[in-house]
Structure prediction request, 332 residues.
Amino acid sequence: MILRNKKKGLLAGKRALSSQKRPKVLKPLRARQLIRRFHVLLKYKSQLTKKLEKIWKCNIESDPAKYIKERNHRLFELFEQARLHTIETLLVNKSPPETVINTDSLQLDEICQELGRIEGEIEKRGGLEVYQAASVQGQSSQRGGDSSKKLVEWLKELGYNKKNAVALEIGCLNSRNLISTCGLFSKVVKIDLHSQEPEILEQDLMERPLPKSAAEQFDLISCSLVVNFVPYPHLRGQMMRRIIHFLKPYSQKPYLFFVLPLPCVINSRYFDEDRLSELMGALGFECIRHHKSQKLAYYLYQWERMVSDKLKFPKKELHKGTKRNNFCIIMS
Ligand SMILES: C[S@@+](CC[C@H](N)C(=O)[O-])C[C@H]1O[C@@H](n2cnc3c(N)ncnc32)[C@H](O)[C@@H]1O
Prediction:
């Protein structure tokens, strides 16, 4: 049974009734497997949606089902059949259906069916809530705690003691992360697409009203493992641009704490640390601290300069190799 929520942007989409239950605690291996499977599904969904956008010459963003339904009843039926079939199959058989890796030759019918299958599997696995629960567990079991530990370590090193400093944590999974408990901020606003606690506001940054005054801006924004979660490179670029509006004026040198999975900067065909520095430099940021762990790349930036609204940052092939990923951030 499906509930369609009324939310917009990245919050849009379907939710299975079963996914509304509180996710159970997962074993570390199971959590890692789930995170990996969600990454495959989200990436595949993004490839197929892009193909659909090309065919229909429109911007679908995160809710292909809605567009298919609006455009073509027959295709939506194919989508629904595939979705329901996948849910039923997974109920009796634990292994996921084959994921078509090469999407080049798929026709419109097949694209809609594949999208239905992905939607079905995401729902059956409990939706984004379960992915988040697995990520929360990942925070503790895989990398020894939340990433804001690094942030707080750096801020202490820098002697950060701004009076009444306020911070925004985008993509917050836990209201007791060190950023909220370290005492360096008088207030930490915490937002996430799917809030798991009353202290976390359920909000898409892309829909958060822009500040009308400095009182609604922040001295520090934490954006840890969020940009890689955004499915499309151009939306990632839009997110980077939007973040700036929520920072205090650059004359006050506000901070941005930014974390990406390591493969985004060491193993992408279209992105690496030099490209990241170019992008951040173009946005007016200066990197003042960076660190790589086995899995993550951490950066602390200070915002120093105004940015042109017309800033462009295209996709460029930087490294060849079939084993590389396609992570990139685009501004057009
Ligand atoms: C992989 S989790 C990372 C969470 C945590 N910050 C960390 O470092 O472990 C990514 C989170 O970002 C959230 N997210 C993605 N896009 C977002 C957006 N546009 N606005 C708010 N939250 C977003 C997702 O809901 C998800 O919970």
In short: Residues 1-23 have pLDDT under 50 and may be disordered.
